[in-house]
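Interim report, section 4.2 (structural modelling).
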Amino acid sequence: MQSQAGRQAGAQLRRVGWLLHAYRLETKLHALDHAVKANFNPNQPRVPAGNADGGQWTGGGGGGGGASARESGETLSGGDGDDRPGSQPKVPKHRPGSARARTTIVKQVARYVASFAIRSVVKRGRIILEVLQQGSWLEEYAPYIRAYVEPPKSLEELQDAVSSPQRGYDIHHIVEQTSAEQDGFPRSLIDSPENLVRIPTLRHWQVTAWSMLRNENYGGVSPRTYLRGRSWEERMKVGKDALIKNGVLKP
Amino acid sequence: MRPGELQMMSVAQLVERFEAIALAQDEAILYDEIKKFNRLFGQMENVKEELKSRVGDQRRALMVLYEHPNAQVRLKAAKATLAVAPQEARRLIEVIADSHEFPQAGDAGMTLLALDEGIFKPT
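Predicted structure of the assembly:
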């Protein structure tokens, strides 16, 4: 059993990790701010959404056209509050007693931080610290939040990571295992390396929940129901698409 | 809601009802209440059907929700108006897909794929 001193030291270490992470982002923000002030061109093309740097300005010079849907009103400097996509979640100072309450808050915090991915590479570090300062108990969930806001990775990277379990990540079956098994696909195929990826836990929950929700896209049934009786290839395509659109897999 | 109650509502009331259901869906997603969400989905389908059945197809009235601060409300309004305002609705779905407001951004991206691949044919 870990001593109280040990726990305190662990908490301190986690805090240092966060501060370093925030510092790196803040350094980036200053560089970006400087570049923007030096030569800002609102019509400069951006990296398409879905890429690791989706929405950010590309290195290419000016150039007209190519305006993205988001372009109007978006600024790299971000602002301190008015342009935030969602309101900052309320984090209780003391650790909630139920796992459900904690999970809900962690999800809200992760989504809130992730929503700054574009207009706010700039202030992300500061935002994380701001949120953490509201409730230090959140530090125990830092690996989950940090994993959630990571940029998408290649399929090879996600597959290779399966052999390295890590807190904040889950092993995910691209083709959903239960319904695949019910439809007679062999376990050797379901658990094959091609079908397994290590993805952030909170993204895993997000994709899994999406697959169970009724959806207009599939005639009013859930993606899981829609895929019943369909080929392995079709399931694999939908599974990969869902990972791409949920910010886990590079297009 | 009792049978026949939707028929008694004005278009504005139906839009309000649509908004309330979408907000409840957002909460159900947050709390992983899958069954509740799926029940709400059915209720929203009924509201859409009622608007569609009104003279002139009143689903366009849902476009007032395009500026709503909640992403689930915006996404649902966009999907519900694809058949009557395809360009405006698609553009909004594109904005949400690019927004990094998850989980709605993910569903918006999948909606665009389903539209492009002919899986989703709004009627």
